[in-house]
Amino acid sequence: MGRVIAIANQKGGVGKTTTSINLSASLAEKGKRVLVIDTDPQGNTTSGLGLDKNELENTIYELMIGECTIQEAIVKNVTDRLDIIPSNVNLAAVEIELIDAEQKEYILKNALSKVKDKYDFIIIDCPPSLSMLTVNAMTSANTVLVPIQCEYYALEGLSQLVHTVNLVKDRLNPDLEMEGVVFTMFDSRTNLSLQVVENVKEHIQENVYKTIIPRNIRLAEAPSYGLPINIYEPKSAGAEAYRLLAEEVIARKF
Ligand SMILES: Nc1ncnc2c1ncn2[C@@H]1O[C@H](COP(=O)(O)OP(=O)(O)OP(=O)(O)O)[C@@H](O)[C@H]1O
Ligand SMILES: [Mg+2]
């Protein structure tokens, strides 16, 4: 049975998508069968894995409004063993379209139950909000992984996020657990990054992954080539870091 990990933080630009793409690709590189799901209307995971957002027949949007099956929404083997359910700007309307839908928090979970057995890991990239899409992701998930950017306001919003996770756990998904936090965009040339890591560690109870993702220009370039880092620049510091993170994630049992 696959482990479903929601990558969430309502703060924008903290590395959710970069982590979704490259953790997924690194898990696949290690022989795991992986499905990554883009639940952000920005569609950055979709384009970052080389799909044209405007040329998609089915996306997470059609899946959520019941216009296609989950099998029809999955694009297979974007790289070896890595499948994706893509997204594009159409998804922006889904919240309003489903406003009166029954059990709308469970739509993704119910769909995923049909394919969960086929994967070792299902990684869900969340939008930068605590919207119905993020709630759907958390309701489907076993765990929530929170990327934290090594910058001054790193802790801002974290308590709100933990509160949301607890609400989802109480009301929608009693088995939900915190996978933990992963620090991103660590800059070894400044003291600030180090101070942020120490400060956040002092203030949170959650598991902190030992692997820290460095600020690495190759990680920022890779999406414009539609490639995950392990294929774009397999020997870069970014690729090595995401490999180590994948190993830690595999080793962590829930
Ligand atoms: N480790 C890194 N090194 C260098 N650049 C990075 C790194 N991680 C992310 N970036 C860059 O920072 C920007 C934000 O990253 P990303 O898109 O992964 O964040 P996000 O949390 O998904 O953003 P959003 O909230 O908009 O969905 C992107 O331009 C990305 O390429
Ligand atoms: Mg993103």
Q: Terminal Cα separation, in Å?
A: 12 Å
User: Residue-averaged pLDDT, rounded?
Assistant: 96
Number of helices: 12
CATH homologous superfamily name? P-loop containing nucleotide triphosphate hydrolases
Question: Regarding CATH, which class?
Answer: Alpha Beta
Short description:
The chain is of the alpha/beta class and 254 residues long. The chain has a seven-stranded mixed β-sheet, with helices on both faces.
Notes on the protein architecture:
With 254 residues, this protein is of the alpha/beta class. The protein contains 12 helices and 7 strands. Strands 3-4-2-5-1-6-7 form a 7-stranded mixed sheet, with helices on both faces. Helix 1 (16-29) crosses helix 12 (237-251). The mean pLDDT is 96. Magnesium ion binds next to helix 1.
Summary tags:
globular; Rossmann fold; 12 helices; 39% helix; 254 residues; binds adenosine-5'-triphosphate
